[in-house]
Specification:
The protein has 351 residues and is α+β, with helices and mostly antiparallel strands. It folds into 3 domains: 3-40 and 87-232, Reverse transcriptase/Diguanylate cyclase domain (Alpha-Beta Plaits, 2-Layer Sandwich), CATH 3.30.70; 46-81, no CATH class; 242-347. 48% of the residues lie in helices and 19% in strands. The chain contains 14 helices and 10 strands. It has helices spanning 3-7, 9-17, 39-44, 51-54, 57-64, 70-77, 84-107, 129-141, 192-208, 242-256, 260-263, 275-290, 299-317, 328-347, and strands at residues 28-36, 111-116, 119-125, 146-150, 153-158, 161-164, 167-171, 179-187, 214-220, 226-232. A 6-stranded mixed sheet has the order 2-3-1-8-9-10. Strand 9 (214-220) and strand 10 (226-232) form a beta hairpin. It is globular. 34% of the residues are buried. One of its GO terms (molecular function) is nucleotide binding. Pfam families: Cas10-Cmr2_palm2. Residues 27-220 form the GGDEF domain.
Length: 351
């Protein structure tokens, strides 16, 4: 029963916040759908390594320094290594990935329904679904230092590899490999068939609307209102992680005295401001009006400014944003909306 996942929200909230709320009621759960991006191109060999990347260095040097015409050298060295061994490696890596997804889902209080190749379907508490999805996509590529406990020992995913007990075991899909996720967050009484449909639509929008390597969260409130928001997982170099940054700031909000209601003031309505004016002047103004607590050392303001700078850049970089959503106000509005999404997942309607 989906009641099980909604029932785990309180404990997951305690794990997240580090304290037990006086009263807590969050009757929402999440359906997570994930899919590897551009798998047809992976299987077709478009992302296969070039011969120059896999042959021994002395051989590569010998070819480069040979008397062969440049076009022949380029043909040899830049040719893709699409051979049976390449397809076996991709297949083996996907099998390893799909066999370990359950560990991540259960770690976050969920239950895996299906994991085959690059496809994932799972049910989770609303509180932990974003963190779970982020770990799955980092595990897929073998980046971000994901750690898991398993019967075989401690597993680590880093440097594009799976490590077991501190020793390299298998390559993962690598930095070029990305995943997209669709998430439906619904009340436990909401029809399951409709929730699955909404999750699929969200996944399609993450791929087609946000240009892949993205996640989309669709929330169906008890009133029937449906909201949809999403973003890129991170910057291309991985130095900024959207989910981690969101969660760090949500934790900091309570100590800074900046409540979720004050978040909406960051919309800025129809103010015409440049990015720098918005971040350097308007955000401090909103924080001051909200009455930040004296014990706050200003770190929340710095975190918030950095978050908005990074997220606005990510928003403006999404190729598929429609023309009416491409102006600065809409980009900032979408960033604020994502903040509110994370806050809702943690607390539901019981604020």
């Amino acid at each position: 029963s989906v009641d099980v996942f909604a029932g785990k929200n309180e404990q997951k909230f305690i794990d997240f916040a580090g304290n037990k709320p006086e009263s807590y009621k969050n009757s929402y759960y999440a359906i997570l759908l994930m899919d590897g991006d551009r798998m047809g191109k992976w299987i077709g060999g478009e992302y296969a390594p070039q011969i120059s990347e896999v042959i021994a260095e002395p051989l590569r040097t010998a070819i480069v320094s040979s008397d062969l015409p440049t076009r022949i050298k380029d043909y040899i060295l830049k040719r893709k290594t699409v051979q049976p061994a390449y397809h076996r490696t991709v297949s083996r890596t996907l099998n390893i990935f799909s066999s370990l997804v359950q560990l991540v889902v259960e770690k976050h209080g969920g239950e895996l329904v299906y994991s085959g190749g690059d496809d994932v379907l799972a049910f989770l508490p609303a509180v932990s679904v974003l963190e779970c999805a982020d770990e799955i996509r980092r595990m897929y590529s073998g980046t971000g230092d994901v750690e898991l406990d398993s019967p075989a020992g401690k597993l680590q995913f880093k440097d594009e590899m799976l490590w077991i007990k501190g020793k390299p075991y298998s390559p993962m899909m690598g930095l070029k490999a990305t995943m997209s996720a669709g998430i439906a967050v619904v009340n436990k009484k909401f029809p399951l068939s409709q929730a699955l449909r909404i999750a699929r639509e969200s996944e399609h929008f993450a791929k087609d609307g946000l240009g892949r390597d993205s996640f989309v969260v669709s929330i169906v409130r008890r009133s029937g209102q449906i909201t949809r928001n999403g973003a890129k997982w991170s910057t291309k170099d991985g130095s900024f992680n959207t989910i981690k940054s969101l969660q760090e700031m949500i934790k900091k909000m309570d100590s800074s005295g900046f409540g979720s209601r004050s978040l909406r003031k960051l919309y800025g309505d129809d103010l015409i401001l440049s990015d720098d004016e918005y971040v350097d002047k308007y955000i401090p103004y909103v924080l001051k009006k909200a009455g930040s607590r004296k014990e706050d050392d200003g770190s929340f303001e710095r975190m918030l400014k950095n978050y908005f700078r990074k997220m606005i850049d990510l928003e403006k970089g999404i190729e598929a944003i429609t023309e009416e959503n491409s102006d600065l106000f809409e980009a900032r509005k979408r960033v604020v909306d994502l903040f509110l999404v994370q806050d809702f997942l943690l607390r539901g309607d019981g604020k």
